[in-house]
Amino acid sequence: MASEAKKMDQTVKALTEKEGKYLTFSLAGEEYGIGILKIKEIIGMMPITTVPQTPAFVKGVINLRGKVIPVIDLRLRFHMNAIDYSERTCIIVVEISGISGMIQIGIVVDAVSEVLNIRGADIEETPTFGTKLNTEYILGMAKVEGGVKILLDIDRVLSAEEISTLEQVE
To answer: What one-character-per-residue DSSP string does 16-46 give?
Structure first.
């Protein structure tokens, strides 16, 4: 009994640590969220310079106030169908942990929704979908207004090897 209570306490603590403000956005009709502390800024679509010999989900680089920032399309990263960009499509500039420190990358999303304050009690662990599905990059599932928002650990959306590739693109 004591070990079950301890495990329950650890789960509650883990979920409480995930509570906070999240920027929510849509991608292929689903809602996602990224912790607001990872967000540097949100910009409209702008010309992206393609970089040869990069993975398909790497759209290229942008020049943001004199700084070159690699841009990935989150739809392509998650193996979703590509779509034409619209007036609602935007780039969220996030800061992630790279091999040589913090790096900024842009992620293309269908549309930004809102900033939500999500309580730990409203976040559930990621369900197990089987052994072959990698869900390491999902922090949890937030129950909000009768729906579910998938909370992303943006530091884990890309593998160390992919981040290394982006650092070379900068």
So the answer is: HHH-EEEEEEEETTEEEEEEGGGEEEEEE--
Residue recorded with tokens 């790497």: 58
Q: Which residues contact 88 (CB under 8 A, 6 or more apart)?
A: 110, 111
Q: Which position has the higher pLDDT, 129 or 57? A: 57
Report DSSP state, residue 126. Answer: P
User: What CATH number does the domain located at 2-169 have?
Assistant: 2.40.50.180
Vertex 55 angle, CA 51 and 76, to 5° = 110
Q: Which residue bears the tokens 């939500």?
A: 116
Q: Coil, helix or strand for 170? A: coil
Q: Do 48 and 37 meet the contact criterion of CB atoms below 8 Å apart? A: no
Q: Are the beta carbons of 58 and 72 closer than 8 angstroms?
A: yes
Phi, psi at residue 159, to the nearest 5°?
-75, 165
pLDDT digits (tens, 9 = 90+) for 99-131: 788 999 999 999 999 999 999 889 988 776 665
Q: What is the DSSP string of 50-103?
A: --TTS-TTEEEEEEETTEEEEEEEHHHHTTPPP----TT-EEEEEEEEETTEEE
Contact 151, 135 (CB under 8 A): no
